[in-house]
Design goal:
Elements (H helix, E strand, L loop, with lengths): L1 E6 L5 H13 L3 E6 L9 H8 L15 H8 L2 E7 L1 H8 L6 H8 L4 E5 L3 H5 L1 H12 L3 E2 L3 E4 L5 E5 L3 H12 L23 E7 L3 E4 L2 E3 L6 H12 L3 E7 L10 E5 L2 H11 L5 E4 L6 E3 L20 E3 L3 H7 L7 E8 L7 H12 L3 E6 L10 E7 L5 E7 H13 L9
Parallel strand pairs: 1-2, 1-3, 3-4, 4-5, 8-11, 8-13, 11-12, 13-16, 16-17
Antiparallel strand pairs: 6-7, 9-10, 14-15, 17-18, 18-19
Bound molecules: cytidine-5'-triphosphate (CTP).
The site of cytidine-5'-triphosphate has 12 residues, from helix 11 and strand 16.
Length: about 425
C-alpha cells in the first residue's frame, strides 16, 4: 500500500518516526511530506533515512515528477501526524501552499488527521470549526489523547501513541471488520469526546390510554444512562433525555425528562441544533392510542371487549437524519432485533440503518427478551460502509466501547 505521512510542525513530530516504522515494517511504501515548520523539530534526513525515499516539501522541487498531483493520486492512505492547529486550518480552508496541502486536495483515499496541540488551541472555536469541516467532508480526525503536554501543563491535546494511530489508520483501509480498530476500551481515559456536545435519549416512551393506563415497553434506560456516563467521562457535555427511566440519572449531565413520544420528539428537535453527536438509545413507541380517554375506561356491562384504535407516532430518528441540524453531526440509532427464517438480526439492522438514514446503528439481539433490564449486553455497530464492530460485556463496559466507536464515525453527507 502507498502511504503518505504528512508531518506538521509540533514537538510530537518525533513520535511520527515510530509511526513511520510501523508502516514500513509491514512493507508499505511511505512517502513523508514534512511541513517546513516541522523541520524545526525533526530534520528531513530522519524521514529520508527511515522511509528510504525523498521527503519533499515544496511544490517546486522535482517539478518534472508532478509531485503535487501524483502523490495524492497514487496514495491509498494519507495520515497527517501531528496535525497542528495551523495545518488543520489550512486543510479545512483548502489552502495549497506546500506539497502536503496540495496532496490533501488531490487525494481521494481515506485521510486521517491526528491532531496534537495545547488544550486551548484544540478547544478554540476556530479549531473546533475546522475539525467539524474536515469531518463533514469525510476526513477522519482522531481526538487527541489527554495527558502531559509540551510544558508542565496537561489536558487533551497529546498525540496518541503511534500504535494507536497505526491501528486507526489501518482500520480505514481494512477490507473487513476483523481489521477494525480494537474496541476503544481506553476511550474514557483518552477523553475522546473532549469538547463535544452529545445528546442521548434513554428509556422507553409511554403512550397514555386513560388517566391510569398506558402502552409502554420494557426498556429500563440502563444502556442509555451508561452511555451518558461514559460520554461525560470522555469529556463531552451531555444532554440526557430520559423517558421514564427506571434507573437513576447520573450527575454531571443536563437531564430533560419526558413521558410520551410526542414529548420526546419536541425535546430532541429542541436539542439537536447544539449536538455534535446524537445517540437515540430510547425505545420509542411506534403507535399511540388515537384518542386519550379522559376517564378510566370501564369494563362494559354487556361483556364486549374494548377496541383501542392506534395511530403512528413520528419517526424521530428518521426525521433528524433527513434534516441535519448542523454540518458534521453524527447520528446513531439503536435497534432491538431478532432474526427469522429468512433474515438474520444483522441483516435487519443493515436494512434499518439504510431506512433511517443515520450514520450508525447499534444492534441488540433480543431473542427471548434478553437484554431488557439486564446488566450485560452484546452489541454490533453497523455503519453505511458495510463494516461491523462488536462488543459483549456489562452495559457500562459496552458503553465505553460505544463512545469510543461513535467518536470515530465520520459524519454522513446524507441530507446536506
Ligand atoms: N425511533 C425513533 N422514533 C420512532 C421509533 C424509533 O426515533 N417513532 C428510533 C429509536 O430510538 C431507535 C431506532 O429508531 O434508535 C430504531 O427503533 P426501532 O423501534 O427498532 O425502529 P422502527 O422504525 O420502529 O422499526 P420496527 O418497525 O422494526 O419496529
Amino acid at each position: 500500500m502507498k502511504v503518505v505521512l504528512g508531518v506538521g510542525g509540533g514537538v510530537a513530530a518525533y513520535k511520527s518516526a515510530l509511526l513511520l516504522r510501523l508502516f514500513t515494517e509491514e512493507g508499505h511504501d511511505v512517502t513523508v511530506l514534512p511541513t517546513t515548520a516541522s523541520l524545526n523539530f525533526v530534520g528531513a534526513a530522519t524521514w529520508e533515512a527511515l522511509s528510504g525515499r525523498p521527503a519533499p516539501r515544496d511544490v517546486f522541487e522535482d517539478v518534472e515528477q508532478v509531485n503535487h498531483v501524483r502523490l495524492g493520486h497514487e496514495a491509498d492512505l494519507v495520515v497527517v501526524a501531528p496535525a497542528t492547529a495551523d495545518l488543520l486550518a489550512r486543510a479545512a480552508h483548502g489552502l495549497a501552499d506546500d506539497l502536503l496541502t496540495n496532496t490533501l486536495l488531490v487525494a481521494t483515499c481515506p485521510v486521517l488527521f491526528v491532531p496534537a496541540m495545547h488544550t486551548q488551541m484544540w478547544q478554540h472555536p476556530a479549531t473546533v470549526a475546522n475539525v467539524a469541516t474536515l469531518r463533514s467532508r469525510g476526513a477522519h480526525v482522531l481526538d487527541p489523547a489527554v495527558g502531559r503536554l509540551t510544558g508542565c501543563d496537561s489536558g487533551p491535546g497529546r498525540l496518541p501513541d503511534p500504535p494507536d494511530i497505526h491501528a486507526a489508520a489501518i482500520a480505514l483501509v481494512a477490507p473487513d471488520s476483523t481489521e477494525r480498530p480494537v474496541p476503544a476500551r481506553d476511550a474514557v481515559a483518552d477523553g475522546v469526546l473532549s469538547g463535544r456536545r452529545v445528546l442521548i435519549t434513554a428509556g422507553g416512551t409511554r403512550e397514555p390510554l386513560d388517566p391510569v393506563r398506558y402502552l409502554g415497553n420494557r426498556s429500563s434506560g440502563k444502556q442509555g444512562v451508561a452511555l451518558a456516563c461514559a460520554a461525560r467521562d470522555a469529556g463531552a457535555h451531555v444532554t440526557l433525555i430520559g423517558a421514564n427511566l427506571q434507573v437513576e440519572a447520573p450527575d454531571g449531565v443536563d437531564l430533560v425528562t419526558v413521558e410520551t413520544t410526542d414529548q420526546l420528539h419536541d425535546a430532541v428537535l429542541a436539542a439537536t441544533p447544539d449536538a455534535d453527536l446524537v445517540v437515540m438509545a430510547a425505545a420509542v413507541a411506534d403507535f399511540r392510542p388515537r384518542s386519550l380517554a379522559t376517564h378510566k375506561i370501564k369494563k362494559s356491562d354487556d361483556g364486549t371487549d374494548p377496541v383501542i384504535e392506534l395511530t403512528r407516532t413520528p419517526d424521530i430518528l428518521a426525521e433528524i437524519s433527513a434534516n441535519r441540524a448542523r454540518p458534521g453531526q453524527v447520528i446513531v440509532g439503536f435497534a432491538a432485533e431478532t432474526g427469522d427464517d429468512t433474515h438474520t438480526a444483522l441483516e435487519f439492522a443493515r436494512a434499518k440503518l439504510a431506512r433511517k438514514g443515520c450514520d450508525a446503528l447499534v444492534l441488540n439481539e433480543v431473542t427471548g427478551g434478553a437484554v431488557f433490564g439486564q446488566d450485560s449486553t452484546a452489541v454490533h455497530v453497523v455503519t453505511p460502509d458495510g463494516n461491523t464492530a462488536e462488543a459483549t460485556g456489562t452495559k457500562d463496559d459496552v458503553a465505553v466501547f460505544l463512545v469510543g466507536t461513535f467518536a470515530r464515525i465520520p459524519a454522513s453527507t446524507v441530507g446536506r
